[in-house]
TrEMBL record:
This is S-adenosyl-L-methionine-dependent methyltransferase. It comes from Hyaloscypha hepaticicola. It comes from the Eukaryota. GO terms for molecular function: methyltransferase activity. Keywords: Methyltransferase, Transferase. One of its GO terms (biological process) is methylation. Pfam families: Methyltransf_23. PANTHER family: METHYLTRANSFERASE LIKE 7A, METHYLTRANSFERASE LIKE 7B. The keyword Thylakoid does not apply.
């Protein structure tokens, strides 16, 4: 549950935080441009999409490990439920992949993980994290958007996936409702969807308006990430779940523009 009683200092810091984060991403622009000029082929016209990917990769080198460090204790036990064939949607730079490791060494057995990450500027770090986690034999990085899984030549059938993992990724996809439905269809009956996503605030009144105000700017700094997506409700209502565990971990307060929700959803067995 979100904490309703916070000091004035925490209240002010909470509201200020997203603006500070956007400021920090701005400070990374000059070095991103410099890197592209130094390492890119300067005789080519500027590739806007490659530029945005490189900027986000620089941004996520700061925020990715920070969020993962803060969230691992609550997300770890959930990811420990992953088994069989896993779709890891938008793993970014792989800051959470070590959480798969314990499970692989345990008994329940992950047999394959598809890390579906379209931003190739993050792949080198993702590959390194996969190696450090000792997952090289099971983890395959797939350089596509999850919406293209059906046409990627990977021959992933509908109802063939044991576990779908979305950690801070549905916030960034362009057609969330369509994708959530598709991912549900990839899950086997009895399969599990593990979710850790920031969502549209459950508060009403001015906090909701404040989140919407921040969101006018936020996606431009964080590669399309939206703060006002009700991903929790989208997944909850996408199909027939036999079992649902959803909760907002402690340590969050009601003024947060990025409130996080945890969820484990089990698809009804046939
Ligand atoms: C906010 S980042 C989070 C990265 C990582 N999950 C983490 O928490 O560190 C969102 C990620 O989703 C990825 N993404 C965006 N659109 C996607 C899509 N259509 N399919 C799969 N991943 C996508 C982005 O490239 C990015 O790496």
């Amino acid at each position: 549950m979100a904490d309703n009683s916070v000091s004035w200092r925490i209240f002010a810091l909470t509201l200020w935080e997203p603006w500070y984060m956007m400021y920090l991403t701005l400070t990374l622009l000059p070095s991103t441009v410099r890197d592209i000029i130094h390492h890119g082929e300067t005789n080519k016209p500027l590739d806007w999409s490659a530029f945005k990917n490189a900027w986000f990769a620089a941004v996520w080198a700061i925020f990715g490990p920070m969020f993962a460090e803060g969230g691992s204790s609550v997300v770890g036990p959930l990811m420990a439920k992953a088994k069989g064939v896993v779709l890891d949607i938008g793993p970014g730079a792989g800051d959470w992949v070590h959480l798969f490791k314990a499970e692989k060494e345990g008994k329940t057995g992950i047999t394959k993980i598809y890390g579906v990450e379209p931003n190739t500027a993050l792949h080198a770090r993702l590959r390194e994290k996969v190696k450090v986690a000792g997952l090289e034999d099971v983890y395959e990085i797939v350089a596509i958007g999850a919406q293209d899984l059906g046409t990627s030549g990977l021959s992933i059938e509908r109802e063939s996936i044991d576990t779908v993992v979305t950690v801070q990724s549905i916030c960034s996809v362009s057609q969330p409702k369509v994708l959530v439905k598709e991912l549900y269809e990839y899950l086997k009956p009895g399969g599990t969807w593990i979710m850790w996503e920031h969502v549209r605030t459950h508060e009403t009144g001015w906090i909701r308006w404040y989140q919407a105000l921040v969101n006018l700017f936020w996606p431009h700094f964080f590669h399309g990430c939206s703060l006002t997506r009700s991903t929790d409700e989208m997944i909850m209502h996408v199909g027939d779940w036999e079992h649902v565990e959803m909760n907002m971990p402690g340590g969050q307060n009601r003024y947060m523009p990025c409130p996080g929700m945890l969820g484990v959803f089990t698809k009804r067995s046939a």
